[in-house]
Amino acid sequence: MFELYNEPHDVSWDVWRNGGDTGAGWKAVGMQQLYDAVRATGAQNLVLIGGLNWAYDLSGVPANRVKGYNIVYATHPYGTPDGFTRPPSDWDRAWGSLTATDPVVATEFGVLNDTACTTGYDQQVITYADAHSAGWTAWAWYPGGCTFPAVINDWAGTPSPTGMVVKAALGGYHDPPASPPLPGGGGPDLAYTFDSSVQGWSFNTYDDPNQQNLAVHPPAGGAPPTLAFDSTDGSPDPGALRVTVDFEDFNQYVDANINFAPPGLNLTGKVLHARIKLVSGAFPQGAFQLHASTGSSYTWGAVFFNASALPPGQWVDFDLDLGAVTSSGYDPSQVVQIGVQLLSGLPSGGGTFMSPGTAVFDIDTVTD
């Protein structure tokens, strides 16, 4: 998660959102500009945006909402021992009402300068956040005593009085794990450019009874296949998914793919695109498939190509029209897996298998 300015204060809501003269002899950049700068890098992360009054007050957000997606508004409800500053009676106005329309998280909370180490305010914040479906993070993992405030008393992690409240609250949640995030954020449903990483792709480890998955059963005495990020090649920009494999017989394959959490992606009406290149080695009797599977039974849909469609050293574009798949039960609104499968060839083609040695392939720009 990326948080922008920490604890903005003493400016108008217009300056908070759009930037401008702070009245203190300098100009501030606005939250919208900061948000846009994050998205311009290609980052799809959650962006946390704190309100005014040292990030406590979110009451002006509805009239000054930052345009974008994956935005969470952050509040800092800090009280004081006298109970006068930011009391629970003010929370509905300051941040609770916003939870009806926007995600909200209390990224810091507690009682400042509390020599008595009281914990009532901390418990109230947690209870209130839970009741309003708001998130919270405890501040801070630092042995600074109650006046900091801190959630530990030492670096061994011994909870402070506040920390005991926090630990008990965390231990009381029994929600199921969150599903993995879908790719693309607010952009395309699929946008795998492999410009800096493998983007979550891996070898399929399904143990096919009819063919030899070399990612599961490498050839005897041979090198196992590898899947890695290649920073030196790519189309159109540098960066690609590199597959290195030694085929030693017919009916062998590797499958570079990525899976999506059920019920999957809705790619109705979409065409799956990919760029593939035989970087080095030979692929004389081979074939490959650009594929997408749907539903809980992983109903298969693919477009099949012979090795002749992949001239050495050339990037080639291939498409799979998901609407043209005729497999019984195929549902493009529930795509749970996509990938590129490389096959050594089929014995039904006749002839004797000719070992090509090590073949290296690059895959890039898998999009819809």
What would you call the shape? elongated
- Taking all Cα atoms into account, the compactness measure Rg is 27 Å
- Name the beta content range: 25-35%
Number of helices: 5
Describe the biggest sheet?
6 strands, antiparallel
How far the N terminus sits from the C terminus, by CA atoms, comes to 26 Å
Summarize model confidence as the mean pLDDT.
92
Instruction: Tell me the helix content.
Output: 10-25%
CATH architecture assignment of the largest domain: Sandwich
CATH homologous superfamily (4th level) name of the largest domain? Galactose-binding domain-like
H-E order? EHEEHEEEHEEHEHEEEEEEEEEEEE
Count of the separate structural domains: 2
Poorly predicted regions: 182-188
Q: CATH class of the largest domain, anyone?
A: Mainly Beta
Name the structural class.
alpha/beta
Number of strands: 21
As for the CATH topology of the largest domain, it is Jelly Rolls
